[in-house]
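S.,

Sequence below, as promised.
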Amino acid sequence: MFQFTGLQIPNPFGPGGLDTFQKLFDAVITFLYYIAGPIVVGMIIFAGLKFLFAKGEPGKITEAKNILWYAIVGLVVILIGRGFIALLESIIRLGQ
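The prediction came back faster than expected:
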């Protein structure tokens, strides 16, 4: 009864935009990469404030150290992950 012919959904990212899964994946990773930087800076500032307001209490100082440690480890993981992806891409291109 009802037949939809010629129904097309336009690419919301424009012509030549994210038309492959690889381009979409790269766009998502880049977006997350740019979001992670400010989050890490915010966590480092938060840890500094925790140190400042700890007033020598060992439990609060340990909590601030843990927050700072996790923020730095997270930043390192993000940076290494980005470099690892570039390394894999260069290795794959050598085989072509």
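The radius of gyration is 22 Å.

Coffee later?
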